[in-house]
From TrEMBL:
Name the record gives this protein: Uncharacterized protein
């Protein structure tokens, strides 16, 4: 999964899809004989700018997208996609006579209100996550497969049982990250929920281990990761319910 420490509303993999960038190459991955990166100017993306001085990295891209999203929000008065806002402080409305003790009711008998900084209010509360299950290759909940029979195992399918009734709340994260937003694997190709079983389908290159991106520069070029090698892919991921808890 293309990720960065800088949070973005737009998934980086979705950005690549919009621009027509090969998803595997965007995740610094390839399969040499079926999805090779060719030419003197390949579209293999690095994680950090210091890995290729003349290329934009995913970290650079995330910072730019974050900046643009913030500028859009400032211009239109609300964020271009749903997000949780915290630590926004407002002074409670006071009586115009400072010697009078105010109450929570205005002169019309209604509860006092205030204008939030951002519009398009959806729901009060804060982000919360609860672990649904850990999907593993050994347990059979995480499966890499060749669905179209072309010799390339490009599909990752996760199947877990859950009591969650809204499939939009089911999210997948790399293990040991406690459901931190910057470690969410997104976007899914599809999500379905039937009879208490959630099925989520992704591209296999979205499960390339982030540790494989931390390659140091040498006299040789940094090599793209072969996403068909089992050791380069996650053998387990965590499935969480993400919701608003009041």
């Amino acid at each position: 999964m293309a990720r960065a420490d800088t949070p973005t509303l737009l998934a980086l993999d979705r950005f690549a899809q919009i621009l027509g960038i090969n998803g595997a190459h965007f995740n610094m991955a390839q399969k040499s004989n079926l999805m090779p990166a060719r030419g003197s100017c390949t579209d293999i993306w690095m994680q950090f700018s210091w890995q290729e001085a003349d290329r934009v990295s995913r970290d650079d891209l995330a910072m730019t997208i974050n900046e643009v999203e913030s500028e859009i929000a400032e211009a239109i008065g609300f964020w271009p996609a749903p997000m949780w806002i915290s630590d926004e402080m407002h002074q409670f409305p006071r009586h115009y006579r400072r010697t009078v003790i105010g109450s929570g009711i205005n002169v019309r008998g209604f509860h006092k209100g205030f204008r939030a900084k951002w519009g398009k209010f959806i729901q009060a509360g804060q982000r919360a996550v609860t672990l649904i299950d850990t999907a593993t290759v050994v347990g059979g909940e995480l499966v890499y497969s060749d669905e179209d029979g072309d010799g390339l195992a490009e599909t990752a399918t996760i199947t877990v049982t859950t009591t969650v009734t809204d499939i939009c709340e089911v999210k997948v994260y790399f293990t040991d990250e406690n459901g931190a937003q910057e470690w969410e694997i997104r976007p899914a190709r599809s999500k379905t929920l039937a009879a208490g079983v959630a099925t989520l389908v992704f591209w296999a290159w979205q499960f390339v281990l982030p540790a494989t991106w931390d390659q140091l520069t040498t006299e040789n070029d940094i090599e793209a990761v072969d996403f068909t090698v089992a050791a380069n892919l996650a053998i387990g991921v965590e499935v969480y319910r993400e919701f608003t808890d009041f």
